[in-house]
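PROTEIN DESIGN WORKSHEET
SECTION A - STRUCTURE
LENGTH: 334
TOKENS:
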């Protein structure tokens, strides 16, 4: 994993990314930042994380994957990890160290079944009443499914073209649906929508929205993919445009952004074929980027460790920074 500063060059663009996204109609990652932790070892602002743990291989056995792309970490309850296993039409649940816990789902259109599932998000306890709740974008079945954290089916509602999904601190569910964003209650009641397709790509309009994330203040970030000028758009929870940052030289988004996750005061963006991850502050200033082969889905745990799904190698990686040494009796490290 190679680190590059804010002035690093742009990653290479893969034109198939847009076609793949249109065909697959899927994207997802949870965007609510976790609470502070006394044992947190958040990386310094301009420091890239390093590998802590990794797991997964190609297959259909428990703990194996067939094209995993999206991930959600329950930062409020033990940092449990949920991965949408696209090719196996199931959700898998792991500990933060990669220990397999459970799975559910298979190909089909019944309750708890999936057909090319996409994004996944998890609410905080009490968000939307009770919980935490898991929400899964069931792409080819054109619906959102809601589950308990144990995988028990709760309810479903129709969405025309769901891909990525996120949940705010109050339990509202945000879904990228085609070229717009829709907001629902935790029971699926429609609240509002915003966005439309536009070649001009004015603020609040989209060319091809992919990832969505929500920060601790319930501000919404959307990856708007474009072959030449991709950007991140930032909105209020009511859909009002706030700002955007786009490619165009050092400090820009780069080409081919896909996944997005909000951490504590920062936003992470993956570039699946650009082979890198970028870290921005909440105003869009690039802090650091690093090389990562084929990253797609991304999420953040309670200690600000970063979890990256690597589709092409069928793996999940946990990245972070080592905690500082504890001071000894004399005031220095042991």
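SECTION B - SEQUENCE
RESIDUE ASSIGNMENT:
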């Amino acid at each position: 994993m190679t680190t590059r500063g804010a002035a690093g060059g742009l990653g290479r663009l893969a034109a198939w990314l847009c076609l793949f996204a249109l065909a697959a109609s899927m994207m997802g990652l949870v965007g609510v930042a976790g609470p502070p932790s006394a044992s947190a070892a958040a990386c310094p602002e301009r420091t890239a994380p390093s590998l802590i743990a990794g797991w997964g291989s190609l297959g259909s056995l428990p703990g194996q994957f067939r094209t995993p792309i999206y991930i959600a970490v329950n930062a409020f309850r033990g940092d449990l990890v949920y991965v949408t296993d696209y090719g196996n039409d199931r959700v898998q649940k792991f500990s933060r160290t990669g220990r397999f816990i459970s799975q559910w789902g298979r190909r089909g259109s019944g309750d708890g079944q999936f057909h090319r599932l996409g994004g996944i998000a998890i609410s905080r306890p009490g968000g939307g009443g009770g919980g935490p709740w898991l929400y899964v974008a069931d792409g080819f079945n054109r619906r959102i499914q809601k589950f308990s954290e144990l995988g028990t089916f709760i309810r479903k509602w129709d969405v025309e073209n769901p891909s990525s999904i996120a949940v705010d601190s109050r339990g509202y569910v945000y879904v990228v649906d085609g070229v717009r964003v829709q907001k629902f209650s935790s029971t699926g009641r429609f609240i509002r929508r915003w966005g439309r397709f536009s070649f001009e790509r004015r603020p609040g309009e989209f060319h091809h929205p992919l990832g969505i994330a929500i920060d601790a203040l319930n501000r919404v970030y959307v990856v708007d993919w474009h072959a030449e000028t991709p950007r991140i758009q930032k909105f209020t929870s009511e859909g009002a445009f706030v700002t955007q940052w786009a490619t165009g030289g050092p400090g820009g988004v780069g080409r081919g952004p896909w996944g997005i996750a909000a951490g504590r005061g920062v936003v992470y963006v993956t570039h699946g074929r650009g082979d890198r991850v970028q870290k921005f502050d909440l105003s869009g200033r690039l802090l650091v980027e690093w090389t990562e082969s084929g990253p797609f889905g991304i999420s953040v745990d309670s200690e600000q460790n970063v979890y990256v799904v690597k589709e092409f190698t069928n793996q999940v990686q946990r990245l972070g920074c080592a905690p500082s040494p504890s001071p000894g009796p004399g005031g220095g490290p042991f």
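SECTION C - NOTES
The chain has one domain: 3-320.
Helices lie at 16-24.
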